[in-house]
Structure formats: structure tokens, C-alpha cells
Amino acid sequence: MIFDLLGVPPQALLGQLLLGLINGSFYALLSLGLALIFGMLNIINFAHGALYMMGAFVSWMLLTYLGIPFWPSLILAPLIVALFGMALERTMLSKLYHLDHLYGLLLTFGLALIIEGAFRTMYGVSGRVYPIPEILRGGTNLGFMFLPNYRAFVVVVALFVCLGVWFFIERTRIGSYLRAGTENPELLQAFGINVPRMITLTYGLGVGLAALTGVLAAPIYQVHPLMGFHMIIVVFAVVVIGGLGSMLGAIVTGLLLGVVEGFTRVFYPEASATVVFIIMAIVLLLRPQGLFGKR
Predict the structure, then answer these.
(1) Domain limits, the chain
(2) pLDDT tens digits, residue range 203-254?
(3) What is this structure's pTM?
(4) Among 159, 188, 215, 288, whose Cα sits 20 to 30 Å from the Cα of 67?
(5) Minimal CA–CA distance to 206: which of 56, 21, 22, 55?
(6) Fold of 12-286
(7) Neighbouring C-beta atoms of residue 288, cutoff 10 Å
């Protein structure tokens, strides 16, 4: 009945719901990493999209040059990119923590251009195909739609990782140390905690989440140097809507906006590329700190 009133076939709506959940899963993972880095380090990490792309490329390179398949790459690629990110944090970003946010944004923007330029020089702008693992190929017929197995896997993994990271930061002793290190690092240092090392590991965790998203996205989207450029613009909007530094806001807002974007493609396709930014403008007017942020 509802579908008849809307004038849209139920298969189209449910298909867009699935597509929205998949995009929302990527938004949630990426924005969680961004919110983690900003909330803990006060750095606006504009290189996040380039590191997402780097995660996809590392998984492709592991398969192409070393024959390492998807499942080991799901761990190895985020670990490699996280180590790269920690090296960047120790050598560059650590010098900017006591300066205005603008300096960190400019530095990470420059790093994003360097990373993307390096991959464009090596591989050009054409996309590389990364195969879906054999066990996740095909799909399941749900009666009202055909659900691809790999895309369902992406949604489940994204939810599991997002909730796991949120629980680790908000409900564990180590997570409490991380939060205390951002609010009063001198006091935490007095208790014998190595605050710089914790900050480096936090940045590595945020970068690893971006790389993990890239590995999950590689079998769905073609792997190319510019794949993170457009994604990161939307993800920044998601973080602003959810509230800068709010990890729960990043997760919930990322999933919801992915679904909203998917439904917009059904009812008003022309607005699907801008609906996230329209919502961001409305939220900033009514609640400048974001839906889950604090003043």
C-alpha cells in the first residue's frame, strides 16, 4: 500500500536502501577515523581520503605483486598504512598540536596531494580491478530482491568494527587513558603514561580505519588514485553533521546519511549529490556543534 502511494516499485526502494547502507558503511568507517583523530589529537586530517585510497592500492599491490589474497590483506594493508601514518605523525604532525587547527589542515592537505600525485605518477588515473573473494561471490535471493553476498559482508564488517572501536575508546581503561591524554596530557604523563606514544597509536588507529575502508571498497569500486578525493568531501560533511570529535555521531550519521542519499536517488535523483551538504547547512544553522557534538 505504501509503495503504491509513493508510486515507486518496492524493489527499487529496497535496492536503494541496500546501496545506501553500503555507502553509509563506508561513510561511517571513514568518518569514525576522522572523528577519532580530531577528537583525540585536534588535527583535521585532510589526508584521510588519500590514506583510504592508499589502503585500496596496498591491497591491490599485495595481490598483484606478491599473490596475497583478500583475507590476509584485510589485516596487512591497514597495518602497513597505519605504520606509514604513524611515521607521518611522529615526523610532522606532532609539531603542530599546540598550533591553530588551520596548520594541521594545510599540512594534511599537502600530504594528500603528495600521496595522490605519487600514485598517479606510478599507475596513472585508470582504475584497477580487484576481484571479490571466491567465497563471497554471487548473492542471495530474498524474494523481493537479490542481495550480493559481498555487499552484505561489507555492511556487517563495518558495523562490527565501528561498534568495536567505539566500545574500545569509551568503555575500556586504555580508551580512558586516550581521552585523558587529550584533555590533560601533563597529568597523565605524571602517572607514568607515555602520552606521545599513545597519541601516535591513536593516529595509527584512525589511519588504519581509513585503510580498512579502502580494502573493503576495492572489490566494489575500481582502485584508482582519485577514489578518495570525492569520498572525503562527503565524509567531512558527515563528521560536521554528527559533531566534530563525536565517534558515536560519526557512526550514526554516516549510516543514516548513506540511506538518505540512497532514497534521494529514487525520489529526486538530481539532488542525490547535494543532499548531504543541504543537511549539513541546516544542521549548522540550527545546531552548530552538530547532532552529537558538545559546545
Answers:
(1) 12-286
(2) 999 999 999 999 999 999 889 999 998 788 899 999 999 988 788 899 999 9
(3) 0.92
(4) 159
(5) 55
(6) ABC transporter involved in vitamin B12 uptake, BtuC (1.10.3470)
(7) 11
